[in-house]
Design brief:
Layout: H1 29-39, H2 44-52, H3 61-74, H4 77-90
């Protein structure tokens, strides 16, 4: 997720969803609200405490920087809103 232990592993992932989106139902308004609320109460302090418990070899400078960037994005309301909008447009 954060480019491996050394921070330089760039794998090419494939889509896990079926590519023909017609098989998926359109998201309802309640699902959209649920998606927005699911990320809202993110406890970053708790997540950093969990990171502290990882083996030292996993906590490289680049991995911690990427984790920090990820948390910053997940706690920015505008970014979360845009992600939810994109997800709903794809489905």
């Amino acid at each position: 997720m954060f480019c491996g232990a050394s921070g330089d592993d760039h794998r090419h992932y494939r889509a896990s969803a079926y590519l023909d989106s017609r098989i998926y139902p359109s998201p309802t308004a309640s699902i959209m609200i649920h998606l927005r609320e699911a990320v809202g109460p993110l406890n970053t302090v708790s997540l950093w405490r969990m990171i502290d418990r990882l083996p030292d070899g996993w906590k490289t400078k680049s991995a911690l920087e990427r984790f920090s960037e990820c948390l910053e994005m997940l706690t920015t309301a505008e970014i979360v809103h845009c992600v939810v909008e994109v997800v709903s447009a794809v489905v």
